[in-house]
Amino acid sequence: VELVESGGGLVQPGGSLRLSCAASGLTFSLLFMNWVRQAPGKGLEWVSTISPDGTVTIYADSVRGRFTTSRDNAKNMMSLQMNSLKSEDTALYYCATTRTGANRGQGTQVTVSS
After folding, report:
1. What is the Cα–Cα distance from 4 to 45, expressed in whole angstroms?
2. pLDDT digits over 64-113, tens only?
3. How far apart are CA 70 and CA 64, in angstroms?
4. Distance (Å, rounded) from C-alpha 69 to C-alpha 76?
């Protein structure tokens, strides 16, 4: 299993970023997929889950209404659109096969700062 995250960067508060996750070595279209994050000095935090067919998405209270996750099973890709970013969204973001971060990749850094 290999998950590769990309798209992170430095953004000002209120800005937007779109993260991507490329998956290989697994039957992507059959799996629930997740985004998790780890802020500096803190533990892993679940962010969102998307169903195998992409019709069901759930979000942590901290990001609901600001973040949107989607997937393209034909390309084995998943995305996280992040809007209205806040400083507390600063973290290393991972895609994973479980809410607890299993099989996550190297992550992509998101820094929200003015």
Report:
1. 18
2. 999 999 999 999 999 999 999 999 999 999 999 999 999 999 999 999 99
3. 14
4. 14
